[in-house]
Amino acid sequence: MTKNLSRWIPAVAVPAVIVVAGAVVIPMSANAAPNLPTKSAEQVLALLAGSDEDSFSGTFDVTSDLGLPSIDTGASENNLDLLTGSHEARVYVDGSDRARVQVLDNLAERDVIRNGDDVWLYSSDENTVVHATAASAEERDVQDPTALAEKLVAALEPSSILTVTTAQTVAGRDAYTLLLAPKSTETLIGSISIAVDAETGLALSVGATARGENDPAWQVAFSSLDLATPSADIFDFSPSADATVKEQKAPSKPEGEAPDHEVTGTGWESVVSVTVGSDLASSPELRQLSTAVDGGRLIHTALVNVLVTDDGKVLAGSVPAATLAAAAE
What we know:
It contains five helices and 18 strands. It is of the alpha+beta class. The strands form two sheets. The chain has a twelve-stranded mixed β-sheet with strand order 7-8-9-10-11-1-2-3-4-5-6-12, with helices on one face. A six-stranded antiparallel β-sheet has the order 13-14-18-17-16-15, with helices on both faces.
């Protein structure tokens, strides 16, 4: 049961919901705002879309203040801790098929490595490894700002009002600040802010605030960035002889089709629904995170609501709880 919750709740509740469904205040440089040539929102969006920097490395921080309670899962490989507090990660990218993300917390390390068709997921705390092929690997929770910004813009740009606000400096680089505000009022999110590198078009930070709030509830931002191509050996990985290795098989359904997966609504009002089994409703983790509601349990955060029904469905969206309940019927 713990495994089911850690698999589905983070994947649906944080990056996925912010993508499908979130004015963030990105911490500004101690220096004055950079003096950049004036660009319209459409021009900054084109700068972001036209970036051709596909090899880089850097350190980024993920900061969350979603209002979730602290939980004791007894499982160090659980990813729910990524939804609270601050976490530091390093990312290495070389083209479309080589990437590595390292999350470093509490003297432990979690890695996601793709090298060609091989995908490895490593937890040093438990000394466990999951090996998959590119076709069978599930999408993972931790994404650097560039990857996340692409998904956000693709999902939300048609239903957003775009503006360019005060320029900023992120990771020592001058950036335009692109703000996406929802046209809809039926969303928990006030806006999403993306810092777009003025030179390369890379997204340097992405953040979100709840509707009516001024302080950020969630943010991912580079603290350092190197545009040089990472060394090839960064992407090499071989599990140690004493590691527990699990092979992840390719899905039986066609590639890109998730089991029992459905999206209702569009843009900021999107609701993601997956079926995971009725035993999830009695998970100890879920009971720590949620409150009882008619027909199930509700996890409420500043940016997203997650409804777990008694019959084993998980519905998530940056929408009021009543919208999730209606979608579950």
